[in-house]
Task: structure prediction
Amino acid sequence: MEAISKFIRMITFPELFKGMAVTAKYFFQRKVTEQYPDQKTILPYRTKGKLHVDIDKCISLCRFCEKVCPEGCIKVFPPPKELAKTDKRPVEFYINQEHCLHCGMCVDSCSTGAIHHSDEYELVVIDFKELLGDKETLPYDMIKKHYRWNYLENVPVKIKDSPLKEEEKSQ
Amino acid sequence: MDTLLNLWSTIESWMLAFPVVIYLVKIGILLGCVFAVVAYITLAERRLLGFYQSRLGPNRVGPLGLIQPVADGLKCFLKEDIVPLNSNPLLFRLAPVFAFFPPFAGFAVFTFALPWVMPNGRTYHYSVADVDLGVLFIMAISSLGIFGLILAGWSSGSKYPLFGSLRSASQMLAYEVPLTLSVISVVMMAGSFRLSDIVAAQQAYKFYFFIPCIIGFVVYFISSVAEMNRTPFDLPEGESEIIGFHTEYSGMRFAFFFVAEYANVVFISMLAPALFLGGYDIPFVNDLALYGAHPNIVSILGVCSYAAKSTIFALFVIWVRATFPRYRYDQLLKIGWLVLLPIALANLFVVAGIKLFLLK
Result:
């Protein structure tokens, strides 16, 4: 009897049809392909993308980001000492995004939250000089035009409750 | 209309003076259609495989990726053609041709529909050469395709292609006999080797031969997948893991093997409906001419019906490819000789019994 049932299983291949049902199920499922230039991925908050600097927040004399950067790709030029008493904003701020590792150490070390990752991830350029960010190109207003930029609002408690944020709100 | 008919009668008189012209025209049309279908079945397979794997497949070249086959052909055409130093140069160059011609030659004996009737009463058949040993011719010519694979591996002068050829030879031992036996059951039912007679017999019996020969149909399907060298029996090439017979080929010569594989798919998908699914017979209608339809309409609907049946078969083959992993070649031999061969023989006796006692 067992031999007969084994033979029937051998000639009717029930397992094969189970497999085909599985692939048929996948055939009608939603596809996971993202067609990149047409559909852009919505990246999660805290994506470690291209760096940006809020020049108005930067106090420039600490130069923490410059010291902590493992690649040495950040260069901050603080104002002369007499000016710094009233206006601490940097005279010039360079980030070489070509060498940037997106490690986030500058972001962690910044005492005023001036330097941040954005969710811009398209770093392919024709000329490397395009990746050299300076005072003009680093502020996130430049990036905001093209990208969704709302993660500051969604970052949890710590930065939201920081005095700087309060100050911004009061203005 | 009259001028057109006059023009046609002059053309016809010329063609009757040189009958070879008719054959050349028919061959041209047939090859054109087959090449177009082969080009688009590659695209269909790549897109459908994508769907089965939750991807989209190639859809960037043209609308829905419809110009992709042209891009593939151009790419293969422009690539460098390498002949390895170790190879046997003559056989290395001949092998793609050997693999290439059998499926295309096999199309010659198909009949695609009932004959087309011209206004002056002359009939034209939808076939190049409807020979009375058509099935035998197909069996012979499709077995020739294996020579191309074996020659390709052997003449490459490299060990991995040789292993591919070895697997291909062992695979041929496994599937040829069950395949032939399952086709023989259909020939027994129809009483003729001619493909149009087989279809006519299915029309006369008012049922398709996959009903009495259901076991034969399953055996035929499994062994024809092996004949097409496709997953789960793609031992000779093994695109992704094991290295196949065309490892040393590049550019246009590789494209020949590629086209040959897909031409084989089209060939088998055209043969199976003729043998088992009623060919150009329109399902549930039996004979449209009985309802007073014009014979030309019947023949056009027949072509559509045939195309639909073979498309469904080809889609099923792609579905099978998307599902199953590959068998080892000892497993394939085991399936061929210990499972398929006894079943095919039993099917032969069953069909003989049906033919003798049930259908008098």
Observations:
- The interface with chain A takes residues 48, 50-56, 215, 319-320, 322-324, 339, 343 of chain B (CB under 8 Å).
- Residues 88-358 of chain B form one domain.
